[in-house]
Amino acid sequence: MRVGLFIPCYVDQFYPDAAKATLQLLEKLGVDVIYPPKQTCCGQPMANSGFEHLAGGCNELFIKNFAEFDYVVAPSGSCVLHIREHLHDDKNPEVAAQLSSKVYELTSFLTDVLKVTYLPAKFPHKVGFHQSCHGQRGLHLSQMSELVAPGFSKPGSLLNMVEGIEIVPLNRIDECCGFGGTFCVVEEAVSAKMGKDRVEDHLEHAAEFITGVDMSCLMHMEGILNRKGSKVKVLHIAEILNGE
C-alpha cells in the first residue's frame, strides 16, 4: 500500500506538528507514506467564495501529485470533503473521479481501511472532542445527534484506545464552532459568538485540551481561548493518537 500524504496549506504554515504526527502515526502502523513536495492548496477557499471556476490549476496539480497512489490521506476533514465533492478534470474526468474516491481523512482511513483496533498511545489528560461539521455531516465520521439512530464516532473510537485519556462530556456534542472557512470573515460577529459558545462548553467541563480532526476549527477556538487568557490548549487528534 502506497499512501500519498496531503497536508493542507494552513496546516503546513501554522500547525506543522499536526502534519508530522500524521506522518509518524501512519508509519508506525506500517504504511508506506510519500509526501509529494510540490503540493499546494486544494482550492477550497476559492470554491467557498464562489470562485471555483478559478481553481482549475489546483485540481490539475492535485491530480498530478496524487493520481499514482493507492490512497491519499490528509489530517483535515474539510479539505478531504472538498476534494471528494469538487475535484474534476474536464480532459480526464474518469481519472479525477477515481482519485477523489481514494482520498481519506486520517481517522476514517485508520478505522475503515487499516481497521485499527489498538494504538500504543498515552495521553493522561482531560480532553474535549470537537465534532467538525464537514467531517461529521459530509464525511460521516460520527453520528449526528438530531437523528434517531445508533450513535458512532470514528475519531472517538480511536481516542478511546489511548491510555490515560479522559474524554469529557459536553452539553452539545456536535455544535458548530462558527469557523466555516470564509464564513468567519464575512460574518465575523456571528462566527465569534458561535466560537465562544463552543469554547465555554469545553471549559465548563474542565477540559485541559480540545482536539478534533480539523485544525481550522481548532485554530478558531484557539484564538478565542488565547483572548480569554485560558490555559486550555488545542491539539490535532493525530498528535494525541501518536503520543507516547
UniProtKB/TrEMBL annotation:
One GO cellular component, as annotated: cytosol
Molecular function as annotated in GO: oxidoreductase activity
Pfam families assigned to the protein according to its UniProt record, in alphabetical order: CCG (PF02754)
Coiled-coil spans in chain: none
InterPro entries to which the protein is assigned, alphabetical: Cys_rich_dom (IPR004017)
Identification of the protein by name: L-lactate dehydrogenase complex protein LldE
